[in-house]
Design a protein that fits this description.
49 strands, 7-stranded antiparallel beta sheet, single chain, Jelly Rolls, mainly beta, globular
Length: 580
């Protein structure tokens, strides 16, 4: 069986000298030492590659002979990792499912790696169509720390939880999705019996068991050794301190109305104020900080402003555009010397109407990015509640902000797609979920309505159906597309071959069995045509591209053995593949 997990782009930009490589590895190792995976030493095996002009570093770590696959996108300081869970359930969880809430009529048993079931309007099995059911899960947990743990049930409807024979949650009643908790002191390395009972009386259903402690962030309790997603953030280049922000009435810098500290100059909303006490119109602001130059060379500063703006670096005013205007970008380049601490000051005014202010920079060893405070910021996976069982994980810039957003499919239970946006300097927002029928599988990314935001087409694996997710800024709406007439098991979207046609109406290519391909056109406004055959030239082009891809997919892999699995990074597809 092959389980494919799309992982994030692993490109970053630094010079390929020895000093830089060693410096980067030190940064990554120091960051990993702060994560949950840092209780013992890591054995570092790194591979340094150059592809398409960018430096691509993939880290293959082992801890206690368990692999940690990590990649870093250096220009924004994003570190993503795929790693094994180190505390949680010992072995699989024994699962019993019942056809009624009283837990008397058992109809199915099984093994689970976690108690996490966002059923929605579905149940524990596609073969069970009833709207009322129950479950009992039994297992053993082993904590990593000797301290007090809080156990949290998150359910819709009732739940009961026993740990070490003690009933610590007893909420056997109808309710919407709610959390209840109980606490116990546990000893590191000791195994404890856990039993959770659950029922759903109708409507939407949800069941999850989580825990947290002083040494462990809140997360779903999963089987030890199961793979988990996480990420941490660093900003290797940037200002020494936060920006000191001082806001004034009018445009004369005389009557101060607010002073505070901010991470970034990235004010792009026309409806939200720069800060709560700052008016939407007729104000000015002064932002000041300092930066230590990482490497001698040319540095470019980019500012986009509506209305006037001045940029002062050191003693030099690089940009002086103190006038009324719509959002306009200006840039200048200056030479800076390694080690120098340079003051930087931005002055801005808003004279009425729209407002906008964004400051970016670029220099030796890193691409254009927002100028923010350097340092380390950690975000455990649980902080944004990533889906536990993603069918695939995609990375794509959905809203044209030059940052990769995350898209997860939920194929097993809920028929949903989760979308995680990055805001400002790489901070991830909690995911929004959209229902897309049964078993969402392939995703095609395409700007269907030419509004610069990326829309998505998702196919349903167990239905002959497509769903279109229209991106409207940072929100999505779902619309059903036309059905596919061929057997669904042999069909997939071919994103590499999607093209805009001459009149800007997009079409996608669908492949099925026996070299049966078809294209699907989109007709404005938001209307889909039926499938139609490819022309002979189009079909030949598709087959040629598929043939080339088949050769590429058979190579350029790096694998690690883990228990009875092979975990491979496919360089061509930029994804993690797990072979059992």
């Amino acid at each position: 069986m092959i389980i494919t997990k799309q992982i994030l782009n692993l490109f970053f930009g630094i010079q390929t000298n020895r000093k830089k490589i060693l410096s980067l590895i030190c940064i990554v190792l120091s960051l990993l030492s702060l994560s949950l995976l840092s209780q013992t030493k890591f054995k570092l095996v790194s591979q340094f590659r150059i592809e398409n002009g960018f430096d691509d570093l993939t880290l293959w770590e082992t801890k206690d002979d368990l692999p940690v696959i990590a990649g870093i996108q250096y220009q924004t300081g994003l570190l993503y990792f795929l790693s094994p869970r180190e505390q949680g359930f010992v072995g699989n969880i024994e699962a019993h499912y019942f056809s009624e809430p009283e837990l008397k009529k058992e109809i199915l048993t099984g093994k689970e790696s976690a108690i996490y079931f966002p059923y929605g309007g579905d149940s524990f099995s596609p073969d069970y169509t009833g709207d009322s059911f129950g479950a009992r899960w039994i297992g053993k947990i082993k904590p990593s720390h000797s301290e007090k743990y809080k156990f949290i049930t998150r359910t819709d409807d009732g739940a009961r939880l026993w740990v070490d024979g003690k009933l610590i949650v007893d909420q056997w009643k109808d309710m919407g999705t709610s959390e209840f908790s109980g606490e116990l002191v546990l000893v590191s390395g000791k195994e404890y019996n856990v039993k959770m009972e659950y029922y759903d009386s109708g409507g939407d259903a949800y069941a999850e068991l989580l825990w947290e402690s002083p040494s462990s962030s809140k997360s779903t309790i999963r089987k030890i050794g199961s793979l988990d997603y996480g990420y941490s953030l660093i900003n290797p280049f940037g200002t020494e301190t936060n920006w000191d922000a001082n806001y004034f009435k009018g445009r004369e810098f005389k009557e101060s109305i607010l002073k505070n500290k901010i991470d970034l100059l990235n004010f792009t909303s026309s409806t939200e104020p720069f800060s709560k006490a700052v008016p939407l119109e007729n104000f000015c602001a002064r932002f000041s900080s300092s930066l230590q130059v990482p490497t001698s060379g040319d540095y470019s500063f980019f500012v986009t402003s509506d209305d006037g703006v001045r940029v002062k670096v050191g003693n030099q005013i690089l940009i002086d555009q103190w006038t009324w205007m719509g959002p306009t970008e200006f840039s200048e380049t200056t030479k800076l010397k390694e080690g120098d601490i340079i003051p930087i000051e931005i002055e801005y005014f808003q004279g009425g109407g729209g407002k906008y202010l964004k400051l970016e920079w670029q220099g030796p060893g890193f691409q254009r990015t927002l100028l923010g405070t350097k340092g380390k910021k950690e975000r455990p996976a649980s902080a944004i509640s990533l889906p536990l069982y993603p069918g695939k994980v995609f990375s794509y810039d959905l809203n044209s902000d030059n940052k990769k957003d995350l898209i997860f499919t939920h194929p097993t239970y809920s028929g949903k797609v989760s979308i995680v946006f990055q805001n400002q300097f790489g901070f991830l927002k909690n995911p929004s979920e959209l229902k897309v029928g049964k078993d969402p599988s392939d995703i095609l990314f395409l700007d269907l309505d030419t509004d610069l935001d990326i829309d998505m087409i998702v196919r349903s694996k167990s239905e002959s159906q497509f769903y279109i997710l229209w991106n409207e800024g940072n929100s999505f709406r779902t619309e059903q597309g036309p059905k596919w007439k061929e057997p669904i098991q042999s069909m997939n979207i071919l994103p590499s071959y999607s093209k805009p046609n001459p009149n800007e109406s997009a079409y996608i290519v669908i492949g099925a069995k026996n070299d049966n391909y078809a294209k699907l056109k989109w007709k404005k406004p938001n209307v889909w045509a039926e499938f139609e055959p490819l022309s002979p030239p189009e079909l030949n082009e598709i087959k040629e591209l598929i043939s080339k891809d088949s050769v590429l997919l058979s190579s350029e892999k790096k694998c690690i053995s883990y228990q009875k699995q092979e975990i491979c990074y496919n360089k061509t597809k930029q994804e993690i593949q797990i072979f059992e």
